[in-house]
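WARN retry 2 of 3 for item q-0093 after timeout on previous attempt; input resubmitted unchanged.
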Amino acid sequence: MIKYLLIFILLPHIAVAQFNENEAEVDDIDKINQERLQYKNSINEATSSSSSLTDNYMTRLMNDKMKAMALKMLQENPLSMMDKMELRDMITSKFIGTKFGKFMDENPKVMNIIVDVAHDKRALPSFFNIVNKPDEMKKYGFFILAVTAIAFIINLFHFNMGLFKRILLKLFIMISVTVLNLGAFYYFFQQEVGPSLEIVLNNF
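OK item q-0093 returned
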């Protein structure tokens, strides 16, 4: 009788403890889901924030046909309505007999990424939204000019080096310039390249 009484007394405490534990787990799950939602919302912002072309120096360089294509792509990716295999065949046919076509044949993962990005509903519209960011494009252009100028100046100081050291220096400069330019592009257009980068990372 005492044993059953003890169980009866302890049962509510066990239930409360289990409830608190479950509640903590739910809070953790909610926190994770909230973080994921915030990340997706930040990526979707580039797509949803603008479905039209703003009047700026980049859009003024476009002819009517290019503007119509860009506007259509901003509103909806027409390639996303194609069958994936049909889209793959279309892309493959564009590069038959070229070095890039051979490269894609030898690296099927690259082909998968291109097809996934082209077929995605957000990736291309989001990327095309770069034309609506003229100020960021100007900053990126100035950054490229600065990096190129610095690389050129560094190249002037290798005359007394041996051949091997000169090759290493040129290779280092080339890799550094590429990494800096790509990093700057992501910094200035993070929301626009976010969906495409997400697809790339999912393929690895």
